[in-house]
Amino acid sequence: MGKRKAIAAMAFGTLIATLFAVAIAQTSRPEILRISPPSGPEGSRVEITGKNLQEASAVFLGATSSTFTLVSSEQIITLIPHKSITSTITVVTPRGRAASPSAFVVANDPRVPDEVSYKAGYVNPIPPPRDFKSALLWGIAIADIRVPGYESAKVEIASTKLTCRVDGTDVILNDDGGNARGGLYRRVPWFGTDQHDPMPVTYAKAVWERASDPVLPRSGSSRSDQAVILPVGQRPDRVWHFWSPSPRAALPSSNLEGCTVKARVKISPGALLQMGMDYWRTPTVAYASGGNNHEAGASNWYFPSDQWQEATFTDIGGPQF
Q1: Residues in contact with 110: Cβ distance below 8 Å, sequence separation at least 6, in sequence order
Q2: What are the domain boundaries of the chain?
Q3: Where is 27: in which H helix or E strand?
Q4: 111: three-class secondary structure by DSSP
Q5: What DSSP state is assigned to residue 300?
Q6: 224: Cβ contacts below 8 Å, ≥ 6 apart
Q7: pLDDT in tens, 287-296
Protein backbone atom coordinates (compact mmCIF):
# COMPACT_ATOMS: atom_id res chain seq x y z
CA MET A 1 0.00 0.00 0.00
CA GLY A 2 2.78 2.40 0.96
CA LYS A 3 4.58 1.59 -2.28
CA ARG A 4 1.48 2.44 -4.31
CA LYS A 5 1.12 5.75 -2.50
CA ALA A 6 4.74 6.59 -3.23
CA ILE A 7 4.32 5.78 -6.90
CA ALA A 8 1.13 7.82 -7.03
CA ALA A 9 2.85 10.73 -5.31
CA MET A 10 5.73 10.56 -7.78
CA ALA A 11 3.36 10.47 -10.73
CA PHE A 12 1.42 13.42 -9.35
CA GLY A 13 4.66 15.35 -8.81
CA THR A 14 5.75 14.62 -12.37
CA LEU A 15 2.40 15.79 -13.70
CA ILE A 16 2.60 19.03 -11.71
CA ALA A 17 6.16 19.64 -12.93
CA THR A 18 5.12 19.00 -16.51
CA LEU A 19 2.12 21.30 -16.25
CA PHE A 20 4.30 23.96 -14.65
CA ALA A 21 6.91 23.63 -17.43
CA VAL A 22 4.19 23.88 -20.07
CA ALA A 23 2.76 26.96 -18.38
CA ILE A 24 6.20 28.58 -18.23
CA ALA A 25 6.86 27.74 -21.87
CA GLN A 26 3.52 29.17 -22.91
CA THR A 27 4.03 32.39 -20.96
CA SER A 28 7.54 32.83 -22.43
CA ARG A 29 6.56 32.17 -26.05
CA PRO A 30 7.27 35.17 -28.30
CA GLU A 31 4.41 37.39 -29.36
CA ILE A 32 4.23 40.25 -31.87
CA LEU A 33 1.74 42.93 -30.93
CA ARG A 34 2.34 45.38 -33.78
CA ILE A 35 4.72 46.49 -36.52
CA SER A 36 5.49 50.07 -37.48
CA PRO A 37 5.31 51.31 -40.16
CA PRO A 38 2.85 48.84 -41.71
CA SER A 39 4.14 49.42 -45.24
CA GLY A 40 7.13 50.76 -47.17
CA PRO A 41 9.76 49.91 -49.78
CA GLU A 42 12.61 47.43 -49.65
CA GLY A 43 15.13 48.50 -47.05
CA SER A 44 12.49 50.04 -44.78
CA ARG A 45 13.31 50.17 -41.07
CA VAL A 46 10.49 48.39 -39.23
CA GLU A 47 9.97 48.35 -35.46
CA ILE A 48 8.53 45.12 -34.09
CA THR A 49 6.83 45.51 -30.72
CA GLY A 50 5.88 42.44 -28.71
CA LYS A 51 6.68 40.19 -25.77
CA ASN A 52 9.44 37.70 -25.00
CA LEU A 53 11.57 38.71 -27.97
CA GLN A 54 14.90 38.65 -26.11
CA GLU A 55 15.99 35.26 -27.46
CA ALA A 56 15.25 36.06 -31.11
CA SER A 57 17.55 34.11 -33.42
CA ALA A 58 15.96 35.05 -36.76
CA VAL A 59 13.41 37.37 -38.37
CA PHE A 60 11.63 36.60 -41.63
CA LEU A 61 9.44 38.51 -44.04
CA GLY A 62 7.48 35.63 -45.50
CA ALA A 63 10.20 33.06 -46.25
CA THR A 64 12.99 35.64 -46.67
CA SER A 65 15.48 36.21 -43.86
CA SER A 66 15.70 39.80 -42.62
CA THR A 67 18.61 41.63 -41.03
CA PHE A 68 17.63 42.70 -37.49
CA THR A 69 18.89 44.09 -34.21
CA LEU A 70 17.48 43.29 -30.77
CA VAL A 71 16.60 46.39 -28.75
CA SER A 72 14.89 44.75 -25.75
CA SER A 73 12.60 41.90 -24.82
CA GLU A 74 9.78 44.01 -26.23
CA GLN A 75 11.35 45.50 -29.36
CA ILE A 76 13.24 44.40 -32.47
CA ILE A 77 14.21 46.55 -35.44
CA THR A 78 14.43 44.82 -38.81
CA LEU A 79 15.15 45.91 -42.38
CA ILE A 80 12.85 44.81 -45.20
CA PRO A 81 14.96 42.61 -47.49
CA HIS A 82 15.70 42.73 -51.20
CA LYS A 83 13.11 41.35 -53.63
CA SER A 84 10.44 41.19 -50.96
CA ILE A 85 6.72 40.77 -51.42
CA THR A 86 3.90 41.63 -49.04
CA SER A 87 4.04 39.08 -46.20
CA THR A 88 3.74 38.63 -42.46
CA ILE A 89 6.81 39.18 -40.29
CA THR A 90 7.91 36.23 -38.17
CA VAL A 91 10.24 36.23 -35.15
CA VAL A 92 11.92 32.93 -34.22
CA THR A 93 13.12 32.10 -30.70
CA PRO A 94 14.03 28.81 -28.98
CA ARG A 95 10.59 28.91 -27.35
CA GLY A 96 8.56 29.30 -30.53
CA ARG A 97 7.66 31.48 -33.47
CA ALA A 98 5.52 34.61 -33.52
CA ALA A 99 3.81 36.12 -36.56
CA SER A 100 2.78 39.75 -36.95
CA PRO A 101 -0.98 40.36 -36.62
CA SER A 102 -0.98 41.87 -40.12
CA ALA A 103 1.23 41.63 -43.19
CA PHE A 104 3.89 44.21 -43.99
CA VAL A 105 2.89 45.74 -47.32
CA VAL A 106 5.88 46.17 -49.64
CA ALA A 107 5.31 49.38 -51.60
CA ASN A 108 8.30 50.39 -53.69
CA ASP A 109 8.70 53.76 -55.38
CA PRO A 110 6.53 53.51 -58.53
CA ARG A 111 9.11 55.55 -60.45
CA VAL A 112 11.48 52.54 -60.34
CA PRO A 113 10.68 50.02 -63.13
CA ASP A 114 9.58 46.55 -62.07
CA GLU A 115 12.52 44.68 -63.60
CA VAL A 116 15.07 46.57 -61.47
CA SER A 117 16.78 44.38 -58.88
CA TYR A 118 17.44 46.73 -55.95
CA LYS A 119 14.47 49.08 -55.86
CA ALA A 120 15.81 51.00 -52.86
CA GLY A 121 19.17 51.56 -51.22
CA TYR A 122 20.76 48.93 -49.02
CA VAL A 123 24.02 48.13 -47.21
CA ASN A 124 25.23 44.54 -47.29
CA PRO A 125 25.12 43.24 -43.68
CA ILE A 126 27.89 40.75 -44.51
CA PRO A 127 31.32 42.42 -44.43
CA PRO A 128 33.87 41.69 -47.16
CA PRO A 129 36.32 38.83 -46.55
CA ARG A 130 39.47 39.88 -44.72
CA ASP A 131 41.68 39.08 -47.70
CA PHE A 132 39.89 41.57 -49.97
CA LYS A 133 42.33 44.40 -50.60
CA SER A 134 40.69 46.67 -53.18
CA ALA A 135 37.50 48.61 -53.95
CA LEU A 136 35.74 50.06 -56.98
CA LEU A 137 32.76 52.39 -57.31
CA TRP A 138 30.08 51.77 -59.90
CA GLY A 139 26.88 53.25 -61.25
CA ILE A 140 23.78 52.09 -63.10
CA ALA A 141 21.80 54.29 -65.47
CA ILE A 142 18.65 53.31 -67.34
CA ALA A 143 15.85 54.85 -69.38
CA ASP A 144 12.24 54.72 -68.21
CA ILE A 145 10.23 53.82 -71.30
CA ARG A 146 7.01 54.84 -69.53
CA VAL A 147 8.05 58.48 -69.79
CA PRO A 148 7.12 60.29 -73.03
CA GLY A 149 10.24 61.33 -74.91
CA TYR A 150 12.45 58.79 -73.14
CA GLU A 151 14.35 58.34 -76.44
CA SER A 152 16.33 61.51 -75.64
CA ALA A 153 16.99 60.61 -72.00
CA LYS A 154 20.58 60.98 -70.81
CA VAL A 155 22.76 61.04 -67.71
CA GLU A 156 25.69 63.45 -67.51
CA ILE A 157 28.55 62.57 -65.16
CA ALA A 158 30.92 65.39 -64.24
CA SER A 159 32.92 63.55 -61.57
CA THR A 160 33.12 60.43 -59.43
CA LYS A 161 35.00 59.95 -56.16
CA LEU A 162 35.64 56.97 -53.87
CA THR A 163 36.93 57.57 -50.35
CA CYS A 164 37.48 55.00 -47.62
CA ARG A 165 37.64 55.70 -43.89
CA VAL A 166 40.66 54.18 -42.19
CA ASP A 167 41.31 54.72 -38.47
CA GLY A 168 38.95 57.70 -38.55
CA THR A 169 40.57 59.36 -41.57
CA ASP A 170 39.01 59.55 -45.05
CA VAL A 171 41.47 58.43 -47.73
CA ILE A 172 40.79 59.17 -51.42
CA LEU A 173 41.11 56.06 -53.60
CA ASN A 174 39.70 57.43 -56.88
CA ASP A 175 38.85 60.98 -57.93
CA ASP A 176 37.92 61.21 -61.60
CA GLY A 177 36.37 63.91 -63.73
CA GLY A 178 34.55 63.77 -67.04
CA ASN A 179 35.02 60.12 -67.93
CA ALA A 180 33.77 56.60 -67.22
CA ARG A 181 34.28 52.99 -68.26
CA GLY A 182 31.51 50.45 -68.62
CA GLY A 183 29.23 48.38 -70.79
CA LEU A 184 25.62 47.77 -71.81
CA TYR A 185 24.17 44.76 -69.98
CA ARG A 186 20.96 42.80 -70.34
CA ARG A 187 18.03 44.52 -68.66
CA VAL A 188 15.41 41.76 -68.70
CA PRO A 189 16.17 39.70 -66.75
CA TRP A 190 18.27 42.16 -64.78
CA PHE A 191 21.96 41.49 -65.57
CA GLY A 192 20.81 38.16 -66.95
CA THR A 193 24.26 37.46 -68.41
CA ASP A 194 27.75 38.88 -68.09
CA GLN A 195 27.90 39.33 -71.87
CA HIS A 196 27.68 43.00 -72.76
CA ASP A 197 28.12 45.55 -75.52
CA PRO A 198 30.54 48.49 -75.49
CA MET A 199 29.12 51.57 -73.77
CA PRO A 200 28.84 54.48 -76.24
CA VAL A 201 29.52 57.88 -74.69
CA THR A 202 29.88 61.49 -75.77
CA TYR A 203 31.43 64.44 -73.97
CA ALA A 204 30.34 68.00 -73.24
CA LYS A 205 31.06 70.87 -70.92
CA ALA A 206 29.42 70.65 -67.50
CA VAL A 207 28.44 74.08 -66.22
CA TRP A 208 26.82 74.78 -62.86
CA GLU A 209 26.24 77.87 -60.77
CA ARG A 210 27.89 78.71 -57.44
CA ALA A 211 24.53 78.84 -55.64
CA SER A 212 23.87 75.19 -56.42
CA ASP A 213 27.43 73.95 -55.83
CA PRO A 214 29.05 74.51 -52.42
CA VAL A 215 32.39 73.07 -53.58
CA LEU A 216 33.05 75.82 -56.13
CA PRO A 217 36.14 77.96 -55.46
CA ARG A 218 35.53 81.27 -53.74
CA SER A 219 36.39 83.30 -56.82
CA GLY A 220 34.03 83.20 -59.77
CA SER A 221 30.36 82.36 -59.99
CA SER A 222 30.47 79.21 -62.05
CA ARG A 223 32.72 76.36 -63.12
CA SER A 224 32.95 74.55 -66.46
CA ASP A 225 34.40 71.04 -66.75
CA GLN A 226 34.08 68.10 -69.10
CA ALA A 227 31.22 65.69 -68.45
CA VAL A 228 30.69 62.26 -69.94
CA ILE A 229 27.20 61.76 -71.36
CA LEU A 230 25.37 58.42 -71.29
CA PRO A 231 22.54 58.59 -73.88
CA VAL A 232 20.47 55.92 -72.12
CA GLY A 233 17.38 56.61 -74.23
CA GLN A 234 19.18 55.27 -77.30
CA ARG A 235 19.39 51.78 -75.75
CA PRO A 236 16.48 51.47 -73.31
CA ASP A 237 16.75 47.68 -73.49
CA ARG A 238 20.09 47.76 -71.66
CA VAL A 239 21.49 48.62 -68.25
CA TRP A 240 24.24 51.23 -68.65
CA HIS A 241 26.69 49.93 -66.07
CA PHE A 242 29.71 52.17 -65.52
CA TRP A 243 32.64 52.45 -63.12
CA SER A 244 35.73 54.54 -62.43
CA PRO A 245 37.92 55.26 -65.44
CA SER A 246 41.03 55.09 -63.25
CA PRO A 247 42.44 51.71 -62.12
CA ARG A 248 40.91 49.81 -59.23
CA ALA A 249 42.64 51.13 -56.11
CA ALA A 250 44.21 49.24 -53.22
CA LEU A 251 42.70 49.66 -49.76
CA PRO A 252 44.94 51.11 -47.06
CA SER A 253 46.34 48.35 -44.85
CA SER A 254 44.78 49.45 -41.58
CA ASN A 255 41.44 49.44 -39.77
CA LEU A 256 38.85 49.93 -42.53
CA GLU A 257 35.55 51.43 -41.35
CA GLY A 258 33.88 51.56 -44.76
CA CYS A 259 33.82 53.56 -47.99
CA THR A 260 31.80 56.37 -49.59
CA VAL A 261 30.90 56.96 -53.23
CA LYS A 262 30.06 60.40 -54.60
CA ALA A 263 29.09 61.26 -58.16
CA ARG A 264 28.15 64.66 -59.55
CA VAL A 265 25.43 63.97 -62.09
CA LYS A 266 22.66 65.60 -64.08
CA ILE A 267 19.71 63.38 -64.94
CA SER A 268 17.32 64.32 -67.72
CA PRO A 269 13.61 63.37 -67.89
CA GLY A 270 13.17 59.70 -68.71
CA ALA A 271 16.43 58.60 -67.01
CA LEU A 272 17.34 57.38 -63.52
CA LEU A 273 20.54 56.42 -61.76
CA GLN A 274 21.85 54.36 -58.84
CA MET A 275 25.37 54.31 -57.34
CA GLY A 276 27.18 51.62 -55.39
CA MET A 277 30.53 49.91 -54.87
CA ASP A 278 32.22 46.53 -54.61
CA TYR A 279 35.16 45.27 -52.60
CA TRP A 280 37.62 43.18 -54.61
CA ARG A 281 40.14 40.49 -53.77
CA THR A 282 43.03 42.43 -55.36
CA PRO A 283 43.43 45.55 -57.53
CA THR A 284 44.01 43.43 -60.64
CA VAL A 285 41.96 40.25 -60.23
CA ALA A 286 39.38 39.70 -62.99
CA TYR A 287 35.64 39.43 -62.47
CA ALA A 288 34.56 35.82 -61.98
CA SER A 289 31.61 33.91 -60.58
CA GLY A 290 33.94 32.37 -57.99
CA GLY A 291 33.73 35.37 -55.68
CA ASN A 292 36.42 37.85 -56.64
CA ASN A 293 34.15 40.77 -55.76
CA HIS A 294 31.80 41.50 -52.85
CA GLU A 295 29.00 44.03 -53.27
CA ALA A 296 28.98 46.59 -50.45
CA GLY A 297 25.52 47.85 -51.35
CA ALA A 298 23.71 50.40 -53.47
CA SER A 299 22.20 53.84 -53.09
CA ASN A 300 18.61 54.85 -53.43
CA TRP A 301 17.64 55.76 -56.97
CA TYR A 302 18.19 59.30 -58.21
CA PHE A 303 15.58 60.87 -60.48
CA PRO A 304 15.48 63.64 -63.08
CA SER A 305 16.26 67.22 -62.15
CA ASP A 306 17.25 70.33 -64.07
CA GLN A 307 20.00 70.80 -61.45
CA TRP A 308 23.24 68.93 -60.87
CA GLN A 309 22.94 66.40 -58.05
CA GLU A 310 25.40 64.62 -55.79
CA ALA A 311 24.53 60.91 -55.88
CA THR A 312 26.02 59.13 -52.88
CA PHE A 313 26.39 55.73 -51.28
CA THR A 314 28.21 54.72 -48.09
CA ASP A 315 28.59 51.52 -46.08
CA ILE A 316 30.24 53.29 -43.15
CA GLY A 317 28.34 52.23 -40.04
CA GLY A 318 26.77 49.21 -41.76
CA PRO A 319 23.00 48.75 -42.16
CA GLN A 320 21.18 51.72 -40.65
CA PHE A 321 18.84 50.41 -38.01
Answers
A1: none
A2: 25-106, 122-314
A3: helix 2-27
A4: coil
A5: P
A6: 205, 206, 207
A7: 876 689 999 9
Exposure b/e, 134-164, CB count within 10 A at least 16 = b:
bbbbbbbbbbbeebeebeebbbbbbbbbbbb
Going by C-alpha positions, the residue among 91, 5, 107 that lies closest to residue 52 is: 91
Indicate if the alpha-carbon torsion angle 201, 264, 194, 251 is positive or negative.
positive
Give the β-pairing of 39-40 and 105-106: parallel
Name the phi and psi angles at 199, rounded to 5.
Answer: -95, 110
C-alpha 105: how far from chain center: 19
Domain 25-106 has CATH 2.40.50.100: no
- DSSP classification of residue 17: H
pLDDT in tens, 183-233: 999 999 999 999 999 999 999 987 765 455 544 444 444 455 899 999 999
pLDDT at position 205:
87
Tell me: pLDDT of 15 over 80. Answer: no
**What is the enclosing helix (H) or strand (E) of 297?**
strand 293-298
**Distance between CA atoms of 195 and 278, rounded to whole angstroms?**
19
The count of C-alpha atoms lying within 13 angstroms of the C-alpha of 54, restricted to the half-sphere facing its C-beta, is: 4
| AA identity, residue 127 | P
